[in-house]
Design brief:
Radius of gyration: 19 Å
Number of strands: 5
Distance between the termini: 45 Å
Strand order of the largest sheet: 2-1-3-4-5
CATH architecture: 3-Layer(aba) Sandwich
Mean pLDDT: 87
Helix content: 40-55%
CATH class: Alpha Beta
Structural class: alpha/beta
Shape: globular
CATH topology: Rossmann fold
Low-confidence stretches: 1-21
Largest sheet: 5 strands, parallel
Order of helices and strands: HHHHHHEHHEHHEHHEHHEHH
Number of domains: 1
CATH superfamily: SGNH hydrolase
Length: about 280
């Protein structure tokens, strides 16, 4: 029986009983089951999203989606090479390209802050690698910045409820391993430049605001730390400040310099609230 045939044997009933599958959200499970069909399609036959840039990007990543969906290979060697953790100091930043492009040593000198961002990732992909890139590193705190690519549909159309389920699964895994969680808000976007127009259109402001509200409420209810980047980066029109991103999405140095002290404050809050636990 092939791997995918074995996957298809997990019905809704026995999914809830399997110790590994039950940690994976149903949207992620559906994606896994769809990969064989996706792999058999030529890039030209994959349904168009109506956005040329997104279509091209998704087509370029088919081998990733079919061969290493969570991109476990990205940091496997780096994770293995890390020295044993000092839990009082180690912090993991988990996220997508906004995190990957953030040169943490330049903004947090002398800190044992580990970058585990992966360009283009969505929350189901982060959930797949959460054990390897977070739990196995034994950090005291994990800072998660995600959701913008889910909203954009990078790995397929995704409801906010699906994103929320993946956030919750990561929070539950972190809690089980005594890792303090910091959830960062989804950043605003802008369309002040031509290069930003499609990226902006893919990320409706209403969805960003709704997801951030859910994150803030979830953190309050579950004693997690909510890191509000959005309010510090947004302009009077409700968009990302023009000077903080050339492409409307990825922060410039000026943007990261605003984000860094907010992240540090959130990390310290998580460490203080986690004492004695």
């Amino acid at each position: 029986m092939t791997y995918y045939a074995r996957l298809s044997c997990f019905t809704e009933e026995n999914m809830s009983l399997h110790p590994i599958i039950r940690t994976i959200s149903q949207p992620l499970f559906a994606i896994l089951l769809s990969l064989p069909a996706l792999a058999q399609q030529p890039a030209s036959s994959i349904p168009s999203t109506g956005f040329a840039g997104l279509d091209q990007y998704r087509a370029s990543r088919i081998s990733i989606y079919t061969d290493d969906f969570g991109q476990l290979a990205r940091y496997r060697e780096g994770d293995a090479a890390l020295a044993p953790a000092t839990r009082e100091k180690r912090v993991v930043f988990l996220g997508d390209s906004i995190t990957e492009y953030w040169k943490l040593p330049n903004y947090f000198p002398g800190k044992l802050y580990i970058n585990r961002g992966v360009d283009g990732q969505t929350t189901p992909e982060m959930l797949v690698r959460f054990r390897q890139d977070v739990i196995h590193l034994h950090p005291r705190v994990v800072v998660i910045l995600a959701g913008t690519n889910d909203i954009a549909g990078v790995t397929g159309p995704t409801l906010n409820e699906d994103i929320e389920a993946n956030y919750a699964s990561m929070a539950e895994l972190a809690r089980a391993h005594r890792i303090r969680m910091v959830f960062a808000s989804v950043l605003p976007v802008h369309n002040y430049t031509h290069d930003a127009e499609e990226s902006f259109a893919l990320r409706p402001r209403a969805r960003i605001l709704a997801l951030n509200k859910w994150l803030k409420d979830y953190c309050a209810k579950n004693r997690l730390v909510y890191l509000d980047y959005f309010s510090a980066l947004v302009d009077e029109r409700g968009m990302l400040q023009r000077a903080l991103a050339d492409d409307g999405l990825h922060p410039t140095d000026a943007g990261y310099r605003i984000m860094a002290p907010l992240a540090e404050k959130a990390i310290q809050k998580a460490l203080v609230e986690n004492r004695g636990r």
